[in-house]
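Quick check before the chapter quiz. The format below is the same one you will see on the exam, so make sure you can read both the input and the output lines.
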Amino acid sequence: MFSYLCTEKNITEIMIDTEKIKSLIAQGEGLNIEFKKSYADLSRDVYETICAFLNRKGGYILLGVNDNGIIEGVKEDSIPKQLKTLANETNNPQIIFSPVRLETDVVKIDEKQIICIYVPESSQAHSHKGIYYDRNHEGDYKLVNHFMISNLFLRKYGGHTEDRVFPHLRIDDFEDNEFDYVRKLVAVVKPGHPWIKMSNDEILRSAKMYQRDEQTGKEGYTLAAALVFGKPMALAMTCPNYKTDALCRKDDVDRYDDRDVVDCNLIQAYERLMAFIRKHTPDRFFLEGDRRKSIRDIIFREAVVNLLIHREFTYPYPATLTIYKETVVTENWNIPYMMGEITPNNLRPHPKNPNIAAFFRQLEWMDDLGSGVRKMFHYVPLYVKDKTALPIMEEGDVFKLTVRYEKKGAYPSRDLGEISATIKHADEVLELIQKNPKITIPEMAQNLSLNTRTIDRVIGKLVEEKIIEREGSRKEGKWMIL
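Here is the expected output.
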């Protein structure tokens, strides 16, 4: 077994690990693994895959393996020629632009030779004979329009689009009411916060939303400033395609039962999306320690914040929040830093719009990077009362989050009589609530000669089954029979 450095002038022999090659074959073709036969001659479509890997996340190309993962081998006396051709053409700007230097390994497995080409992820966009390629699952595809190509270059762009400077923006382009709202919020969550006494302009500068463009030398408010505080006209001028489409599709899945097209600034958008969630999902009784918590708000605050903050605002497609019978699904365009499903074990927090994220943290609308994901994995099974009901986060060009809020098959709800028959003391509690919606748990316990812990348990079950819900505060509110 030996390896070649694929350069134009030299071929160097070095030792490698064959177990890595066997592992790649066992995994099969995918986002970063490709098989090609190349028995006697180098496959001509290998350059499309090289280009696609360079433009995506890199990967391994195995020559001498068919699409089914069966090792057919490369003709041994053709190996030097194939390697030389590969070296010459990957360094030829008319074949691959910009040219690249690749490492190739030749491995002998079951008496058959395999050529392994390692392609790194590139910081540049590459084309093959003038055509750009990208990788998707186990295929290479052409980027056929300006939008797809511009997305590729945007992905390779090292900065954050939230920092784009718009010199024409003026302080009058921002909503005064939002600044007052922000001052009130930080005064509650962080008394003594410096924003309380700052002017509107000072708040924006403090939040890094006024910057200097190093390329043009021009100064001004940034895209982030327009997104967070902008009036409708400011949003239209700086980010004309920005909006979030909120849909409820519990009954009419072809169209919708309810809809809110949210195209206002991010402060208003956060409040509107949370209101949409509260309107169409249950808030179940939950005690943590001796305090009642709205775990619905905890869970969906993370979902809404992710939808608004960790997205690429320059893409022309709207973000979506869709409420189905059992799940809530959010989707937004994204510059991925990893591909595939995200779990607490493989989580690699990376801010997509760090200045907007830092701003939301000051309002305590979001937590530190990574902790929000862990919160969702902790609370969703408690919310659904199902340990298997974990959120599903899939990162790619589109980031998709699926949160279950009902048990599978639990919709529509069972008949009230059927449910109350399975919950001990349910009928007595419901009768008390019907007579006096403002009755307290201690009063229920006294009326029924039960302890408050038992009443808490009955109330929790009735809320979970959507038979009752609490309206208003614990002291001043009342129970409603649904």
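If your answer matched, good. The first strand starts at residue 2 and ends at 6.
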